[in-house]
Amino acid sequence: MSAPLADLHLRQLINVLRRRWKLIAVSCMIGAALAGAAALLIPPRYTAKAQVILATKRDSSAGSSMAAAGTHDEAAVETHVAMLVSEGHLRRVLEYFRAERSVLLTDLTEPESQFDVDVDALELENLKQNLRAFPDRRSRVIGITFTSTSPAVSAAVANRTADLHVAAIAERRAADRQETLNSLAERLPLAKAEVERTEAALQAYRVTHGFTEVNQPDEADQQLTDVNRQLALAYSDLASRQGRMKALHELQPSRDPLPILIDALNDSSLRSLYRAHQAGLRSGSMAAMSSPAQPTLQVASANPHDIRAIISESIAQSVSQLASETSTIEGRVRSLQQRLTTLQNASTHLRKSEIQVRELKREASSAIQVYDSVLQRQKEVLLEREGVPDVRVLFFAEKPELPSSTHPALFVLPAMLAAFLGAGFLAVVLDSLDDRLRGNRDVADWLGIPCIGIIPQLSSRHRQHPCRHLLQDPLSPYAAAVRSTVAIALELPSQRDTPKVFLVTSSVPGEGKMTLACSFAVCAAVLQRRVILIDLDCRRSAISRELGLKAVGRVHEAGQTPSESSIRSVPELDIDYLAAAAGSPFEPIAAIADGRLAELLRSLRGRYNCIIINGGPLLSSTPARLLAPMVDHLLFAIKWGTSRRPIAQNALQSLRCGGQQMGEFGVRVSAVITQANLKQHARYGFGDLGEGLLRVTTAR
């Protein structure tokens, strides 16, 4: 893979899934098969539903229809739901089936021999898991469902659960009714006796204290009010007269008290006489004092002194009369005070009696209310209809015809989707762990060298003689790929006549190094280059097979120095070659060390403008690493989908470890991918030469 898993883009993900389509397809088929098999092995399950309805207070008391007014009691509904799924109720359901010896018990659980647990506990656990009770759409209707592999079992359990619940509620209601009647029967005589006792106590108190009318305290209060008002008036009159008496006594010692006394008595006749007296004194004549309104005074008033005497006598009479009235009023005040005291004492006694009577009346009234309530409750309980319970069955469950469990076919698609996701994840993981090199981007990213060609894989018919196939079918993808690689390596047409020495190597054996070297040589000859092929891979020399020759000449005999006389020619391929036969004692290291190989290459540069050396693998052959400074271009063969990234990196690193760093001696290193499967290569979406070659193959 060319990038880490974290950097995986959508296009790369799609390419990974396309490349691994077989894995994904097989996984999906296996997942679908397993899901189908599991679904077929699981028996279908059936769910039956019974419904009960809660009666409102109006339903239970008056026996009215189900459309009773008022909202439902959510707390009551939840209470009945909890009762239906309670462990005690479920045990009653199981006890019913045991008592009836119903064959349905065998359908509720599997055979006892298959379980190492208590069968009763297992049956109860099954009921807990499969029995459901719930309010139906926020109403007074409660749904009861049971799920089983048998339609008859599901219907029977749902119906029996509803029946037993209704029966239990009815029994409890009847027991409560009877208990209420017994309690009321016990309380009724006691309440009646209490009424009789309180009424008798009230009557006895009235007789004892003579308190026969309830309005007597009110009459006493009215009398007290009247006496208080009279006493207040008497006090007012007494105070007025006492004040006048006191004023008269204080004025008598004065020099001329008549005017003041007359004003204090406030008597108009005395005031007129006094004015006449004063006028007579001023004129000395009695005629001026005559008045038609006072004929008796005209005769008696001949002398002013007589008039004064008359005035003094009248004043004395008025004062005496005032003193008499004052004494009378004082006596009345004392009488009223005595009467007020008597009435207050009587009122206090009546008030206490009234309070006691009222208390006794309250006790009697309370006792009567208790007695009436007990009597009324007894009548209500007796009149209640036992036929309308608090809860009743609305609909019984019928045997379900269709299973409630999911159809087995519906498991296939989710299983295939899960298998697809799992296989896709596995494909991405496998692709991220794949360290084999395949395309130009892989080579550039991981090895840091350019890739100048991708050589497609030959068919089995042409694999034995690739060089002859190159000449016989020059329009084939293989020939086109080799020509493209040779043209780039030779840098045509800029450096057409410049001699170049190429070293073809690889990381390990078996990566197509020899086939690349031979095909490169043949294609360079076709491009009018003077070519010589030197095979220095003595351990695995296969140049005769690659070139289609029967015999191969030796580079030299034992102990001889390599020379140009050992060069052989292949006229049909228009190339020369210099190779060691299998088992040759020639050791390239010695020739490199004493400079003989370098001298040979300098000599060959004068005769050939394209020298191709087939060196050994970098990791298993030392001469290949030592030859790198002597060549112009190093072609690094990478087998498509086989060469592993760390091995190739270590092979190139071996050039640096020997002090022969790439580029240090003017050596150009390029990679060539060999034996590429074009169809599989196209699935990676590199967009390189491999996809173009695939189109050429398709067009042919």
Task: Give a written overview of the molecule.
The protein is α/β, with parallel strands linked by helices. Helix content is 58%, strand content 11%. The protein has 25 helices and twelve strands. The chain has helices spanning 10-19, 21-41, 57-62, 74-84, 87-100, 105-108, 119-130, 151-209, 216-251, 258-265, 268-283, 295-300, 304-383, 412-433, 440-446, 466-472, 477-490, 513-526, 543-547, 588-593, 596-607, 622-627, 645-657, 678-683, 689-699; strands spanning 46-54, 131-135, 141-148, 391-395, 451-456, 500-506, 531-535, 568-570, 575-579, 610-614, 633-639, 668-676. An eight-stranded mixed sheet has the order 5-12-11-6-10-7-9-8, sandwiched between helices. The chain has a four-stranded antiparallel sheet with strand order 2-3-1-4. Helix 5 (87-100) packs across helix 8 and helix 10 (258-265) packs antiparallel against helix 11. The longest helix has 80 residues, at 304-383. The protein is elongated and about 205 Å long. Residues 1-6, 58-72, 102-121, 285-302, 551-561 and 659-665 have low confidence and may be disordered.
DSSP strand tally:
12
Beta strand % = 5-15%
Low-pLDDT sequence parts: 1-6, 58-72, 102-121, 285-302, 551-561, 659-665
Q: Give me the side-by-side strand order of the main sheet.
A: 5-12-11-6-10-7-9-8
On the 0 to 100 scale, the average pLDDT is 77
- Label the overall shape: elongated
Category from helices, strands and their pairing: alpha/beta
Helix count equals 25
**Can you summarize the main beta sheet?**
8 strands, mixed
* Fraction of residues in H or I helices: 55-70%
Distance between the termini: 31 Å
- Rg from alpha-carbon coordinates: 69 Å
